[in-house]
Design brief:
It is a single chain. This protein is an alpha/beta fold. 19% of the residues lie in helices and 26% in strands. It starts with 14 loop residues before the first helix and ends in a 15-residue tail after the last strand.
Amino acid sequence: MTEILNPYHKVFKNAKDAAQDIKSGMTIMSGGFGLCGIAENLIDALAEMELKDLTIISNNIGNSGRGLVKILKQDKIKKAICSYVGGNPDLEERIMKKLIEIELVPQGTFSERIRAQGMGVRAFYTPTGYGTLVQEGKETKMFDRPCVLETALSADFAIIKAEMGDTFGNLWFKETARNFSPLMAMAAKTTIVEVEKLVNVGEIPPENVHLPGIFVQRIFQGKNYKNDIEFLVTEN
């Protein structure tokens, strides 16, 4: 590997240094789908920090004791905005005991609320959720069909993982690990990225850049990735 140059002052030594100014009460977007593409090093860093009353925006809050469950079990999460809560007995227990506030959002609406923030759109109408619990307390309007007004989602920080990134923050994601992460990077005030491979500017061909570095404020080379599989299926 060639020497990593850092003229843009975005490269940090590790997750702890990159996340050092995350504080209690902040809102954090966390990329990933299930356990695919999650920011393992940054989640571990949050688990070691003295934090409380966090609002987490993520498709799900970990699974089977892994991922964001690490900080959930430490009672650091006050509210979770997510699309899926299955396969997570730790979250189920806290929901039943009213120890955490949950805002369930249909998955398409969830991604669009994040995308809207990155595009500068403050709210939008969608037919999804009309006539269900999702509609409660929200403005509705008739277009070609009844629609619900949904507001954009923003965050103080986004923590995401990419397969490869350069020192300016240009990113390349591997397959479906791309999921919500580029949208979150655009929607958060500060985006922290961990990568499996950190390279110099120019080593990622422009046509292969999935997210331009203009949306990334901090980046570091991750380590010790487990890349857990939620449900291992093998054939005899």
